[in-house]
Design brief:
2 copies of one chain form a homodimer. Chain A is of the alpha+beta class. In chain A, about 25% of the residues lie in helices and about 35% in strands. A 4-stranded antiparallel β-sheet of chain A has the order 2-3-1-4, with helices on one face. The longest helix of chain A is centred in the middle third of the chain and has 14 residues. The two termini of chain A are about 25 Å apart. At the A-B interface, strand 1, helix 2, strand 4 and strand 5 of A face strand 1, helix 2, strand 4 and strand 5 of B. Strand 5 of chain A pairs antiparallel with strand 4 of chain B.
């Protein structure tokens, strides 16, 4: 499956989160990761997140059958005119 | 179309961005919005973003045919066991 992961954590706890997510997914921007995961990789990562994240924090993981399910537009830093409709 | 919008802006410029996105989309967590947009709403919002965002910043907008294209798991604050597979 293809996933988009966005986290909102306390500032001093983001480094560990970033490191863990980076083992499974590609970093896209501050607190945003994307990538293809097997079911077992998803389970590993989500189990880790479930234990790590506290009730003052939040992580959303969007799951798709494939990357083809979406189109993506990027503005600012990595702007690429080919991405913009 | 259904969109997920994630922004990474300089701290003192997020309020204005938050306010603008909130006119079109639902706020989900820090720097994350979601919602259904018509093509013309998308054009309005993306034109505004294109002008507002500078080269040190970044905004990613993921676009889908409908909200049904995705599943969503939430961890932490708004955890809801019905959302977690």
């Amino acid at each position: 499956m293809y996933v988009i992961l966005v986290y909102d954590l306390e500032a001093d706890r983001t480094n560990k989160m970033h490191k863990e997510c980076g083992q499974y997914l590609d970093w896209k921007q501050n607190s945003l990761f994307e990538g293809e995961l097997t079911k077992s990789q998803y389970k590993e990562l989500s189990n880790w997140i479930d234990k790590y994240v506290n009730t003052e924090e939040k992580v959303v993981i969007y799951k798709f059958r494939s990357e083809n399910a979406m189109n993506k537009d990027i503005y600012g830093f990595e702007r690429d005119s080919s991405n913009i409709i």
